[in-house]
């Protein structure tokens, strides 16, 4: 797994954590698992849990223990005293299953040398107003979609021919029903508990620090907002009060190390005369909060000439993003259905880890 691919995974994390859209009453519980080999200075197995984009649990193959990442997560033992022991055992089992699956896929794909990486994302969404439930369950191997469960059709989708034997076996033994039950019952049950226990944090609203950044006088001006919560926010450029659709380049939603979020949007000013800059505003919107317009002015722009004071936030965020690289890697992949699948080869089936 190359460094380039890892950075891409992190840069797309925001799109995943914001998968439940703009509906203010939709909550999500997702688990992200990464299993790798021969990756320097990184645990071979990592599993983390997120509620509404906020990390709640962490496990890795070095510590061998699932631990809470939010103070309110400790309340879960009031209803389930064995929760942390159970979660730890599930992760220990999953670590061994993923290690075995890596060997199976290396042989099946004839890629026995070098480093390899499994990613698994699974979880659920629940609308506490309509009670609508949705969920996702999907794998990738070495950065490519491998197999996924389609909740609507209750079938497994195999974008790669090498996944076909696994698809057939899982459907034959009734695994689809088990995954549906996990998403619609067990996952939602714990999501509701977590939302109740963490209500003060999950329902809070934090406003961002908004800055203007520019690499050079001829480069686009970046409007960068960081430190806001929740993730259901919008950032866009306006001219004379109207939202711009052309000459703008929105960035991805990304997580910060403290549980807040950041995002940015670029504006091409190459053809804008200086006297017209005041007609442009960067607008930040967060549900339930008054809109925050920031008028563009040259004196407010931080450039490379001031990077020791101005772009420190951006550099720090990049470093923190790399630290998160494999915790959320898999969830950025949008699986798709293959048009044609070759007949299944007679090779070992990939095994299932136990669900959280």
UniProtKB/TrEMBL annotation:
Domain Ig-like, chain residue ranges per copy: 208-282
Transmembrane segments: 311-333
Keyword terms of this UniProt record: Glycoprotein, Membrane, Signal, Transmembrane, Transmembrane helix
Signal sequence extent: 1-18
Pfam families, sorted: C1-set (PF07654), MHC_I (PF00129)
One GO CC annotation: extracellular space
Any Gene Ontology biological process: immune response
SUPFAM superfamilies cross-referenced by the UniProt entry: Immunoglobulin, MHC antigen-recognition domain
Family recorded in the similarity comment: Belongs to the MHC class I family.
UniProt xrefs under Gene3D superfamilies: Immunoglobulins (2.60.40.10), MHC class I-like antigen recognition-like (3.30.500.10)
Protein name from the UniProt record: Ig-like domain-containing protein
Organism: Mugilogobius chulae
């Amino acid at each position: 797994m190359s460094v380039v691919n890892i950075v891409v995974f992190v840069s797309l994390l925001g799109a995943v954590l914001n998968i439940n859209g703009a509906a203010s009453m939709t909550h999500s519980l997702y688990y992200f698992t990464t299993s790798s080999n021969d990756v320097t200075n990184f645990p071979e197995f990592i599993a983390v849990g997120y509620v509404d984009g906020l990390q709640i649990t962490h496990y890795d193959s070095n510590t061998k223990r699932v631990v809470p990442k939010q103070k309110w997560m400790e309340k879960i033992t009031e209803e389930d005293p064995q929760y942390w022991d159970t979660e730890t055992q599930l992760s220990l089992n999953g670590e061994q299953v993923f290690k075995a699956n890596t060997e199976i896929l290396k042989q099946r794909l004839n890629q026995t040398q070098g480093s390899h990486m499994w990613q698994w994302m699974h979880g659920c969404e629940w609308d506490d107003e309509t009670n609508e439930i949705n969920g996702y369950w999907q794998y990738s191997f070495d950065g490519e979609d491998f197999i996924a469960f389609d909740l609507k059709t209750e079938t497994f989708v195999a974008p790669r021919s090498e996944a076909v034997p696994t698809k057939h076996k899982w459907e034959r033994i009734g695994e689809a029903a088990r995954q549906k039950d996990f998403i619609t019952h067990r996952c939602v049950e714990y999501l509701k508990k977590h939302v109740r226990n963490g209500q003060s944090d999950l329902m809070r609203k934090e406003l961002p620090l908004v800055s203007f950044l520019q690499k050079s006088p001829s480069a686009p001006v970046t409007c960068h907002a960081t430190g806001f919560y929740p993730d259901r926010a919008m950032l866009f450029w306006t001219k004379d009060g109207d939202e711009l659709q052309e000459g703008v380049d929105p960035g991805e939603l990304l997580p910060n190390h403290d549980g807040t979020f950041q995002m940015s949007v670029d504006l091409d000013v190459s053809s804008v005369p200086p006297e017209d800059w005041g007609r442009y505003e960067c607008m930040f919107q967060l549900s339930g909060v008054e809109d925050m317009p920031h008028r563009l002015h040259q004196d407010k722009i931080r450039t490379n000439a001031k990077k020791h004071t101005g772009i420190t936030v951006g550099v720090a965020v990049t470093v923190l993003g790399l630290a998160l690289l494999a915790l959320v890697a898999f969830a950025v992949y949008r699986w798709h259905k293959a048009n044609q699948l070759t007949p299944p080869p007679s090779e070992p089936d990939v095994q299932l880890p136990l669900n959280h």
